[in-house]
Amino acid sequence: MAVLLLAVFFFVAVFAKVFVVTVIQSKDLQVKALSQWMRDVPTDAPRGRILDRNGTVLADTATRYNIYVRPNAVADKQSVATLIASVFGYSYEETLEKISASASEITVARGATKEQLDALYASGLSGIYYGEDNFRYYPYGDFMTQVLGFTGFDGNGQTGLEAYYDKYLTGIDGSILTETDLVGRELEGGGRYYVPPVSGMDVVTTLDATVQRIADAAIGTAVANFNPKAAYCVVMNYRTGEIVALSEYPSFDLNNVPRDDLEQLFGYSKSKTVSTVYEPGSTFKILTAAAALDTGAVSVTDRFYCAGTRVVDGQKIRCWKAKGHGSIDFAEGVEQSCNCVFMDSALAMGTDTFYGYLQSFGLKTQTGVDITGETSGIFIAQDAVKNVDLARIGFGQAVAVTPIGMLAAASSVVNGGTLVTPHLLNYVSDPYSGEKIYSDFPSRGTTISAATSETMRGLLTRVVENGSGKSAYVAGYKIAGKTGTAQKYENGHIAQGKYISSFLGFSLEEEAPYAVLMIVDEPQGYMYYGSLVAAPLVGDVFEGMFAYFDVEPEFTGEEAEIVGEPFALDDYTGMSVTQARLALQKLGVYVETDGDGDTVTGQFPAAGAIVDKRNTVLLLT
Question: What is the pTM of this model?
Answer without folding.
Answer: 0.83
